[in-house]
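Recap from last week: sequence in, structure out.
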Amino acid sequence: MDEAKPPLQIAVSDLETGGLDPHHDPILQIGLVLGDVVPGCLEVEGEWSTMVRLRRPWSRYGARHIHGIRRRRLLFAPPIREALNELTRRCGTRLIVAHNVAFDWGFLSHAAQQHHVALPAGDRLCTLELSRSLDPERTMSHRLADIAMRAGVEHS
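Predicted C-alpha cells:
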C-alpha cells in the first residue's frame, strides 16, 4: 500500500517597502499566509502581518500613494529585528512563495545581515518566474493581479 505524501507546507509572503533599494530603503510591512497544499487547494492555517518601526521616526519611507501606509502606523510598530525573528519562527522550513521573491528576499537578507538574524530555512518559489516560464513568448501580463485573475483567484 502506498503511503500518502504529507502536504507541502508553504508560507506565502509579501513585503511593503519604502523604495526599491534594500541598502537604503526600509521594510515597512511583512505579511504571511501559512498553509498546506493538498490536492486541488491550499488549506490556510493562519495569517500574520506586522508593520515595522522606522529606524528614525522621520526618515523617508517611500511613496504613500503606492504602499498606502501612514507614518503613524510605523511609529509604535515592532523593530525590524523583532519582525524578522517572528517571520523566521512562523515560517520555519516551509517553502517561501512570493511574487518577485528576489526583490523581497534582497530586503530581508540585507536587514537580517544588519541585525544578525537568521532567515527562514525553507526553499523559495517565485510566482513571477513561474508565470514567465509558462509563457516563454511573453504574450501575457505577469503582474500578480493578472496572474491571479487568470487562475480564478480573488486578489484584493
